[in-house]
């Protein structure tokens, strides 16, 4: 099946075909070219601290068991029995010695090795169990506790893949002496939308805030984003960060990160006091310029996003061109007091959990975009992605290309990488 992607994404990525969002042939190519060739986020080390701990994970449509082996190592195996393919692990998370397939009870270690075949004693030719373990994810690496897997055995090391995005992620992670942890199981829900729109949204689209979320986000907050908000795209495109850069000499209280005012709705002054303490040490931890960042949203190619303001990571797992399963975790500072962690989690879920006030509005927009993209008689009317073309520039202190947030370069860079990946597959 060939698809001419040059007709779907223009050379300057200022025009994107509606078919990019809806075409089944395009989706089949994405599975190979994007999800088969990238580092995909699986989970956080804090979810599997002890030997025998496991959580469900996912790589595009492939179900994965992420576990801590009794060897102390992290393992990722495809959750599919070597006998007839049933999932051998049905629980979302837990601690176990064995995964036992429900059909004929073949059992596997948490490392993925096959241990027992109950029928074995009744057959004369014994199967070679060493060849019948679960299929492992061939590449597995962690950075800052974030675990990624890849189906591409030749992929570059994870740190190189993340590249300069680490500078922006560290602006958050390194503010805390012991980094972050994930709190509880992820929220998971289905949306009738294409996986790329939630991703595009968080890569850099902070301009819908005052419009789509006008009832919740105060106009002054949006004005601040327009004035001191930046969108930064790191090489080779596809990763992006948005943040406000507070002026030099700003009082600590003005810089304390995110929607701290909203967090206060749920917990009095505890969160603010904690954040002020963290912010007071930010310069020594992350340096001057990063200490003045108040992050907004980040995107990591192809489908991981981070909401600094509401401390959550999200993965947009496709389930076909028109459906996405969204996984969303509360990420909290590992050494914050428990009451602060709880408030931050409530803050996250109230705004960006499955029933979150802002999430609901975003979800409706993404669903409507998919419906709009399916209009047959508008196929010759591609979407315009040219806002701010050429305004992105190098910055003396920040890696990548930087611009005001109205520039849609973040999306053009994503789709340029997307197009190249599909072209490389078809060559
Ligand atoms: S399918 Fe798993 S034991 Fe038969
Ligand atoms: Fe939004």
Word description of this protein:
This protein is α+β, with helices and mostly antiparallel strands and 427 residues long. It has helices at residues 19-22, 24-35, 158-162, 165-173, 196-204, 209-212, 219-228, 252-255, 260-267, 270-280, 282-286, 288-291, 338-352, 357-373, 409-426, and strands at residues 15-16, 40-44, 53-59, 62-68, 74-78, 93-95, 98-100, 107-109, 114-116, 139-143, 146-150, 180-191, 229-234, 239-245, 293-300, 304-307, 312-318, 324-333, 383-384, 393-394, 401-404. The strands form five sheets. A nine-stranded antiparallel sheet has the order 12-18-17-16-15-14-13-21-20, sandwiched between helices. Strands 5-4-3-6 form a four-stranded antiparallel sheet, with no helix packed on it. Strands 2-11-10 form a three-stranded antiparallel sheet, with no helix packed on it. A hairpin with a 6-residue loop joins β20 and β21. It is globular. The two termini are 13 Å apart. The chain binds FE2/S2 (inorganic) cluster (FES) and fe (ii) ion. FE2/S2 (inorganic) cluster binds next to loops.
């Amino acid at each position: 099946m060939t698809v001419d992607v040059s007709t779907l994404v223009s050379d300057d990525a200022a025009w994107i075909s509606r078919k990019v969002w809806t075409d089944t042939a395009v989706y089949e190519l994405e599975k190979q070219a994007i999800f088969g060739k990238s580092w995909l986020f699986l989970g956080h080390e804090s979810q599997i601290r002890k030997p025998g701990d496991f959580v469900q994970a996912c790589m595009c449509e492939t179900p994965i068991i992420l576990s801590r082996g009794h060897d102390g190592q992290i393992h990722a195996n495809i959750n599919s029995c070597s006998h007839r393919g049933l999932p051998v692990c049905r629980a979302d998370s837990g601690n176990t010695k064995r995964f036992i397939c429900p059909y004929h009870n073949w059992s596997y270690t948490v490392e993925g090795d096959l241990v027992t075949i109950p029928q074995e004693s009744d057959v004369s030719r014994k199967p070679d169990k060493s060849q019948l373990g679960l299929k492992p994810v061939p590449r597995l690496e962690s950075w800052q506790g974030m675990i990624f897997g890849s189906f591409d055995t030749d992929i570059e090391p994870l740190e190189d893949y993340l590249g300069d995005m680490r500078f922006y992620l560290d602006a958050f992670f390194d503010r805390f002496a012991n980094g972050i942890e994930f709190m509880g199981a992820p929220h998971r829900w289905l949306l009738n939308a294409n996986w790329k729109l939630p991703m595009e949204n968080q890569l850099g689209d902070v301009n819908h805030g005052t419009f789509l979320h006008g009832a919740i986000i105060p106009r002054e907050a949006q004005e601040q984003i327009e004035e001191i908000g930046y969108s930064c795209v790191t090489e080779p495109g596809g990763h992006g960060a948005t943040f406000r850069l507070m002026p030099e000499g700003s009082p600590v209280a003005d810089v304390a990160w995110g929607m701290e005012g909203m967090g206060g709705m749920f917990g009095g002054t505890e969160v603010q006091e904690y954040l002020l303490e963290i912010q007071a040490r930010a310069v020594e931890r992350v340096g001057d310029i990063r200490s003045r960042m108040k992050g907004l949203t980040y995107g990591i190619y192809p489908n991981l996003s981070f909401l600094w303001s509401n401390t959550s990571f999200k993965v947009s797992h496709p389930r076909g061109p028109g459906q996405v399963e969204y996984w969303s975790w509360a990420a909290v500072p590992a050494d914050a007091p428990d009451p602060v962690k709880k408030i931050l989690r409530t803050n996250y879920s109230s705004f960006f959990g499955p029933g979150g006030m802002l999430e609901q509005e975003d979800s409706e927009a993404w669903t409507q975009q998919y419906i709009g993209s399916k209009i047959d008689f508008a196929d010759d009317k591609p979407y315009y992605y040219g806002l701010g073309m050429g305004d992105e520039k190098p910055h003396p202190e920040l890696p990548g290309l930087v611009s005001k947030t109205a520039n849609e370069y973040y999306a053009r860079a994503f789709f340029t990488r997307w197009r190249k990946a599909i072209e490389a597959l078809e060559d």
